[in-house]
Each structure stands twice: as C-alpha cells, then as structure tokens.
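User: For my dataset I need records formatted as: sequence, then structure tokens, nothing else. Please produce one.
Assistant:
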Amino acid sequence: MRRKLKEQIDYGNTPERMDPNLERKLASPDSLYATNPAMKKGEADVQRLVSNRFQKVADKLRQVTNIQDLSSKQVQGMVYQEMMRKLPNIMRIEAAHKDELIELAIQSSLDEGEVPEGRYQIEADLGMPDTGNFRMEPEEDEEDEEEEKEEKLKFSSFDLDELTDEEILELEKHKRNIINALIQGAAKKGHYLFQKPEVKSRLDAIDPSLYRDYLGIMAINDFLYFSMEQMIEQMSQTGQGVAGKVELGDADEEEGE
C-alpha cells in the first residue's frame, strides 16, 4: 500500500521553492512557533504563514527582474551577481550624500513609527558596520538547556486561576516569542520605507538610480533568506551578513538616574 504524503506548504502556482532545509524546519512540530499555543494547528499554521510570505517575496523579485521563472539555481545566481554589481554605484552615491541620507533614514523611521519628536536621541551612521563586539550566537545557559530537555507543557486551560506558576511562566515565554516575531516583522517592513512616495522623491533628487538599485538588492536579499538558507546562516555566524547593530543607552545614565 502506497503512503500518500500531503505537502503542507502551499506554493500556489509559483515555480520557486524554498530551501529543503528550511522546509524541514517548518514541518517540525517541535519548532519555536509550532509549539506556541497561538498556533492552533501547530506546524501547519507555521507552514501556511511562511509559504504565504514566500509567495509575496518571489512575486516581488519577479516584478523587479521581469523574470517569470526564478526556480533555477543558475538564474538565481545570475540575479544575485547582477545585484552585487550594483553595490559599488550605491556606495559611491551614499558616500557623496551621507549626511542627507542619514537624516532621511532617521526621519522616515520616526514618521513610520509615529514617534513624537524629541522622544529619542539617535546617533546613526552609514557605511560598513563595526561588528567587533557583535554577538553571533546566544550565550549558553545551562538552565535553559535543562528546560528544553523537559517535556513541553500542555495547556488544558488559559484561566490564570487554574494555572500553576510554571505554566504561567511558560505562557509568558510563548507570548514573548510572538512579540519578538511582530517586532521582527515591523523591522522587515522598515527595509522598504524607501518606497514611500515622499522618501522616493528625495532619493530621486539625489540620484535616480539609487531607488532602483535599493529595490533590486532588497528583493534578491529577501528571496535568498528562503532559497539559500544555509548560506544566510553561515554569513550570520561569521558576521558577513550583519548589516548593522544597535546599542541602547539611557540619556540620563551619566547623571546616575
């Protein structure tokens, strides 16, 4: 008797496919989000959400490159090399308009987040980031490792009066993971702030090629996160894929407040 395998990831009519390693991770019932109570159907919900996002990413790259079938590794490599050839031109333009672009990035970010003027003091830079003290991997915690070995808690109720302290803590951890995902999604959306009409018009005033090249590089970069996951992971671990870092400080720290 033949066993029928059902593909949970819905690629629709798109020929492109995700990295097989990523597909396996998404299919795991023990992944970070599959075990989250917010995902009622577990890994099936995770696969549905990620495949939906992948289709949008693939559509974006097709729109930018005007190539309708990006499934071939040869085509993907060609597109990647083409985008990388644009980097010297981008860096040349950015170097000549550094202060203006930094101010534009700060202002558009604050406007997007509806942050009141004067709430934060931001010191931004433009160029290759200093990754000297960038932590590539999380610090090992023996206590956390022990917790991971324990059996996953099953919640029969979400009434706080009926939960143990351990169960409440576990729910807080799941909630934190969802919040982190929302923050990451908002940050990813911020990568395309340059498409807003008011931002695009200022970029065009600096150099018409800047917007076009930003769009091309962002589109292929997003696609590679899904199609070449191993390469992305390797770049992240070595610092090659680090585009920048953030250090938060208290404005009143020196005064001891």
